[in-house]
Specification:
Length: about 260
């Protein structure tokens, strides 16, 4: 017990020394730390600035000042990331022990989710891979049920997820492609009203990654599902859906043509 108490005192002393005026902390630090707490893992530094509307220099100033609290890293794309340095730091920040320096992960989740929701509504094509993967769980965590329902019903957003998963696979970024394909599949499968073309796109992207990672039975099952989806469409509708899917999932459209679907 002595070590945690010592750590707590050290953290408290750092905050009091770094922010003798708590109003400066509230203005510049609390929301950013809340965002880091909310995502629960490495957050690309560029994303943090994007969420908060900061310039590059403002983001760099925050990271420099917060360095004792953070772990530096790189994501799969080589982007600089930041994360809370230790679970104890996160626990202290969200406890009564932090007093006027307390940060709220729920507020952070709402800040991040609100920003991502705005981007998804206005320009889904601008969403980064990180944002595509995390927007739905963050909306749920933040309790933003109406916004979650809106995005989950957006064919434009769902197509963006499926398209990007296929693009990542083509680029050889298979771990990221698999994660996004699973997310797209989950989001799309949960909506009966989702167009058949999008269901097939998501299944096709996931099938490609399953095949890459040697899960051949799963890949073949998904491909059979894709073909079954097209067989269930009326002939007059099939052409329309093929047009819809050809830009999002060229491989799927080619497969359907090759098999005479």
């Amino acid at each position: 017990d002595e070590l945690p108490r010592s750590l707590g005192r050290a953290i408290s002393l750092w905050f009091r020394t770094t922010f003798p005026d708590p109003r400066e902390y509230a203005r510049c630090f609390r929301t950013a730390l809340g965002c880091l707490l909310a995502v629960g893992g490495p957050l690309p530094c560029e994303e943090l600035g994007r969420i908060l509307g900061w310039s590059g220099s403002e983001t760099a100033d925050f990271l420099r000042k917060a360095r004792p609290l953070l772990n530096d890293g790189r994501d799969a794309s080589g982007n600089q990331t930041a994360a809370m340095s230790h679970d104890f730091v996160s626990e202290w920040l969200t406890s009564d022990l932090a007093g006027e320096y307390r940060a709220n992960s729920s507020d952070g989740a709402r800040t991040v989710a609100s920003r991502y929701f705005k981007l998804a509504r206005e320009n889904p094509g601008s969403l980064t891979d990180y944002e595509l993967l995390r927007i739905l769980p963050l909306l749920e965590t933040a309790g933003m049920r109406e916004e979650l329902d809106t995005i989950s019903r957006s064919s434009t957003f769902l197509e963006r997820m499926a398209r990007r998963a296929a693009e990542l696979g083509k680029a050889g970024r298979h771990a990221e492609a698999l994660e996004l394909a699973h997310a797209a599949r989950g989001a799309i499968s949960g909506r009966e009203e989702t167009p058949a073309s999008l269901r097939a796109c998501a299944a096709s992207a996931l099938a490609g990654e399953d095949e890459h990672f040697g899960r051949l039975a799963e890949a073949e099952s998904l491909r059979r599902e894709v073909l079954g989806t097209w067989r269930s469409l009326e002939e007059s509708e099939t052409g329309l859906h093929l047009i819809d899917v050809s830009s999002a999932c060229p491989d799927l459209a080619a497969t359907l043509r090759d098999r005479g679907e």
